[in-house]
Design goal:
mainly beta; 8-stranded parallel sheet
Length: 1001
């Protein structure tokens, strides 16, 4: 027996599948119908566990008797078969992992056959529904050797009635799952491609005439104090009366009604929002069944171009979330999801976009109860169509031959290709069906306030039909689809059914442009921004400031929540694209999370947390003012302010306060500030949760502000040093300077110190050279090409002239130097003055000139190779985690201790990490560095060359030395791995700059 060709026929989406409907679990009357404890329902039979399994490299290897074949393996359900030792992982972002040949898929289409026995006691006058909440990519279902049905849409429920196929006692259930089907062309999401039954499987016992669907709807009064509530019910055979009971948030019965269509007025409403997720309880009962649904009353609308929630403008502090785990793949339990939700709450995230498919149906029930705004997205992404070949000119390599400029034609053809499925009539039903599945299943979820038609699939008639259906079915929510910005050359988009204007990864300047145009009347939402790949999120504060400028900006959703890194084959190490034998892959582009695959918090998330803090402080006219950035909560009810006044890092006063300040209002902090002094005075305000909540403990840390009251440089305490007579000797190509216990070797050809000794012990293990290179971050992946073309990665220092003079104040060496690279023009011109003092200290004064046509510098500074014993450091700067000029809002200015190992951040793909911005001084056992102005430094067991060369953190080899980089400036981090270029103000792009630094050995 062979499988029918449904899997390559876009006209066959489902066979015998029950129509899409609202998710709910019926209980037997007399039970407590808690939807989040569905396993306790007498009418719910969970089929998870160990199933028999056979895997075939191709469906054409499937034996004729596959329903009764011998099974060689067992597999856990739910799971992905790639995580269970079958097939291989593959990560690809845009490119389809199969030929672009819709609706056809390869003959070598891997196939899994699942089988288990069900011992079942059938009851008379009952019906039995078999549910699969997630199967990738399609499934054929058989019960007792009889075909039951076929379905697709990997992340939506496929439900089949199996009553007539069941028998008393033992029953055989067989499910055949294919890796690819025609639906796979609409499931080209940026993720590891995994297969199998990855969500729960269960049987529901229902009445003969059972309640198949219901839709809870309401209209709120203008002042939001009353609601007209209605419930539309649908039974399988004929309408029935239902007993409705509504309980208020305290459990008191509010309404009791028996009717075929519930309709009632509710007064004195307590509204739902993400800060206070207050829920009512609706119970529906009929015959022997009782069903419970939580209801939150809220209103979302657009007025005058502003998104309003409960009549107030709000900002989404959101994140995109995939279902992902390094060991369980797409199979995510409630416990795993709660870890994510708790971490999000802990880090001031209030919104989730289900990227790019519906989550498990219980996930948004958790969001209802725990307080998150949700964009619920349909299971659609087809951006691989934009990657197919486009005719391009064959350009000449010769400079005397002009080349045609076809860039605009190529761009438009890519857009047209992008819109392939959005316009192909063969896929119209599939796109509509996936949107219907999304809306119908979750239409009763309070937390869902926006329906998203899908992701990155262009635009055309098919999405217009989907948007029209969604608006007709549910006018209480807003509609979103970023792909609508793409205009096919042969079609004019109709955007009338989309409520929001959406872009991904625009610059802040793009928002400025949008709101400068008066005809733009839709709220602007960033469905993806601040791409969190590797060391990233350097632009969060700039985005936040821009969001605050415009009422029509409703915030955005960081891409993305977690890194994706499964275990490598036969290894305890984790991998990304290319680590699993794939020839087509997108490398570490899947390592773009705010947390690691193990949910270890990255510095990116800490930056997001403090940027999104619920309150901000400002120093104005000698007073501290607090702005409450909560949307519905008084500060005094939410948090306590813990203040600490410090001078040069030492606490001189502290205490805590409650501040009465309504949402989005400002209040003066009742705190007397000291007069300014000659010390660095900082007022640090820590914000802590006043009372615990479902996910957060009392006194949970919400964020901080630091206000500098008097700006001074903090100097380290140093012992007095003896003055010595300095002697200078000429040596080959240089000078040897002897200063008591110190000995310096200066190279006149390079213009740098090649050796420094103290009492015969080397203080540096390699020459003290200038340094402009950094191990490229993931955000440097584009600018890196320019850096390398200019020779930044292979440059060196040379001297054009050197001179030495000596007086009672010490020895001065003046070196005219250049930083150069083979085959490239000079990168920097330097005038360097080294002043060796009688105390042995070195004062360094650098005047630098940079050609403006060259790309901005990664950094400029000095690199020390120190003895391994120099592995501990104290510094006064931004810490304790890494900080950069555009990414330091996670860090406090203060005094810290660290080691080279502790200071290293082990990104799976090695890159620049562990720098500290705004440093006043740095002190090691045998080295102190100070400067006239704050500087940056990096302290590591690894060289930047090692970090650049290696592709995995576990392959790094420590340097024989401790590596210290002291920088005049380090360019910012940004988010250019998939986002705008680094802002000008965060680039080391000066044409001329001076740097004065003191080295004390």
């Amino acid at each position: 027996m062979s499988l029918p060709n449904y899997y390559q026929d876009p006209n066959v989406l489902h066979i015998n599948r029950i129509p899409h409907h609202a998710y709910f679990i019926p209980f037997q009357k007399g039970q407590t119908p808690n939807q989040l404890e569905r396993e306790k329902s007498n009418q719910f039979t969970l089929l998870n566990g160990e199933w028999h399994f056979n895997f075939y490299e191709s469906l054409h290897d499937l034996p004729d008797n596959f329903l009764n074949t011998t099974f060689a393996h067992k597999i856990l359900v739910p799971s992905n078969w790639q995580t269970q030792g079958f097939d291989t992982h593959q990560y690809t972002n845009i490119n389809y992992p199969i030929p672009f040949d819709p609706p056809y898929v390869p003959h070598n289409n891997p196939c899994g056959v699942y089988q288990r026995e069900i011992d079942f006691e059938l009851k008379p006058n009952k019906r039995y529904l078999l549910n699969f909440e997630g199967v990738d990519s399609c499934l054929f279902v058989y019960v007792n050797d009889e075909f039951v049905g076929y379905g697709q849409i990997s992340h939506s429920t496929n439900e089949f009635e199996i009553t007539k196929h069941l028998k008393q006692g033992k029953n055989s259930l067989v499910v055949v799952v294919l890796k690819w089907c025609d639906g796979s062309y609409l499931e080209d999401q940026d993720k590891f491609r995994m297969s199998g039954i990855f969500r729960d499987v269960y049987i529901l016992e229902r009445e003969q005439n059972y309640l198949q669907d219901f839709f809870i709807q309401y209209q709120l009064s203008e002042d939001l104090s009353q609601a007209h509530l209605s419930v539309e019910t649908q039974f399988t055979n004929q309408p029935e009366e239902v007993h409705f009971q509504l309980f208020d948030p305290q459990g008191n019965l509010v309404l009791d009604q028996t009717s075929g269509h519930f309709s009632a007025k509710i007064c004195n409403l307590v509204l739902w929002n993400a800060e206070a997720p207050t829920l009512y309880t609706l119970q529906l009962s009929y015959q022997t069944e009782i069903i419970e649904q939580k209801i939150g009353f809220r209103q979302i609308q657009v007025k005058n171009g502003v998104l309003l929630f409960n009549n107030k403008p709000i900002k989404f502090k959101g994140v995109n979330r995939h279902d992902s785990d390094p060991k369980t793949g797409y199979a995510i339990s409630r416990e795993q999801a709660l870890i994510d939700l708790r971490l999000m709450k802990e880090h001031n995230i209030n919104a989730i976009r289900t990227a790019h498919y519906p989550n498990s149906p219980w996930f948004t029930e958790l969001c209802d109860q725990l307080g998150f705004y949700v964009i619920a997205e349909s299971d659609i992404e087809s951006h691989g169509s934009s990657a197919v070949y486009i005719e391009s000119p064959e350009n000449s390599i010769f400079l005397n031959v002009p080349n045609p400029n076809k860039q605009e034609e190529i761009r438009q053809q890519a857009v047209d290709n992008f819109c392939y499925f959005a316009r192909d009539p063969n896929f119209k039903d599939a796109i509509l069906d996936r949107n219907i599945a999304n809306v119908e299943r979750d239409k009763n979820r309070t937390s869902i306030i926006i329906w998203s038609l899908g992701n990155e699939s262009g635009f055309g008639e098919n999405f217009e039909a989907a948007a029209r259906w969604v608006k007709e079915r549910d006018r209480s929510r807003l509609t979103h689809y970023e792909g609508s910005i793409y205009q096919h050359s042969q079609y004019q988009n109709d955007l009338s059914n989309l409520d929001l204007y959406s872009e991904m990864y625009p610059s802040t300047e793009r928002l400025d442009e949008y709101f400068a145009e008066p005809n733009n009347r839709k709220p602007f939402i960033l469905c993806e921004y601040s791409h969190a790949m590797g060391n990233s999120c350097g632009d969060m504060e700039d985005y936040w400031q821009t969001f605050q400028q415009y009422a029509g900006s409703c915030g955005g959703f960081v891409w993305e929540w977690c890194d994706h890194a499964p275990l490598r084959p036969n290894s305890d190490k984790y991998g990304y694209g290319g680590d699993f034998g794939e020839t087509l892959h997108d490398g570490n582009f899947c390592m773009d999370g705010l947390v690691s695959q193990h949910r270890i918090v990255h510095s990116n998330l800490l930056e997001v947390k403090n940027v999104n803090r619920p309150v901000r402080a400002e120093l104005k006219e000698g007073k501290v003012w607090l702005k409450n950035h909560l949307d519905f909560t008084n500060l005094a009810d939410y948090l306590t302010v813990h203040y600490c006044l410090s001078e040069n890092g030492e606490t001189v006063q502290k205490g805590q306060l409650l501040v009465n300040c309504e949402s989005n209002q400002t209040a003066c902090l009742p705190l007397e500030l000291p007069t300014s002094s000659e010390k660095l005075q900082i007022l640090t305000l820590d914000y802590r949760l006043r009372e615990g909540s479902a996910l957060l403990a009392k006194d949970h840390y919400l964020g901080f502000d630091q206000l500098v009251l008097s700006e001074k440089m903090v100097k380290p305490e140093l012992p007095s040093r003896p003055q010595a007579v300095i002697f200078v000797e000429n040596i080959a190509n240089g000078w040897q300077i002897i200063n008591g216990e110190y000995r310096y070797h200066f190279d006149k050809l390079k213009g740098i110190f090649t050796a420094i000794e103290k009492n015969g012990v080397p203080m540096i293990e390699q020459p003290l050279d200038f340094n402009i290179w950094r191990a490229p971050t993931d955000n440097d992946r584009l600018i890196r090409e320019f850096w390398q073309k200019a020779g930044y990665d292979k440059c060196y220092t040379r001297a054009y002239s050197t001179s030495l003079s000596q007086d009672e104040n010490g020895v001065k060496i003046v070196a005219e130097c250049g930083i150069v690279a083979t085959a490239q023009s000079r990168i920097l011109t330097l005038k360097v003055v080294y002043h060796i003092l009688p105390s042995g200290e070195i004062e360094l004064n650098v005047q630098a000139k940079r050609p403006t046509h060259l790309p901005f510098l990664p950094r400029f500074g000095l690199r020390f190779f120190l003895h391994k014993a120099n592995h501990q450091a104290e510094y006064f700067g931004y810490g304790e985690r890494e900080s950069y000029m555009d990414k330091h809002h996670l860090a406090k200015l203060g005094r810290y201790q660290t080691t080279a190992s502790e200071n290293h951040t082990a990104y799976l793909k090695p890159q620049e990490n562990g720098s500290h911005f705004g440093t006043h001084y740095l002190q090691l056992p045998n080295l102190t560095v100070t400067a006239e102005k704050p500087f940056s430094f990096n302290f590591s067991p690894y060289t930047q060359e090692e970090l650049t060369a290696k592709t995995h953190s576990y392959d790094l080899v420590e340097s024989d030395s401790t590596v210290l980089c002291v920088d005049y400036k380090m360019s910012g981090i940004g988010s250019n791995s998939c986002g705008p270029s680094l802002k000008e103000q965060y680039r080391l792009n000066e044409e001329n700059f001076d740097w004065k630094v003191k080295i004390i050995l």
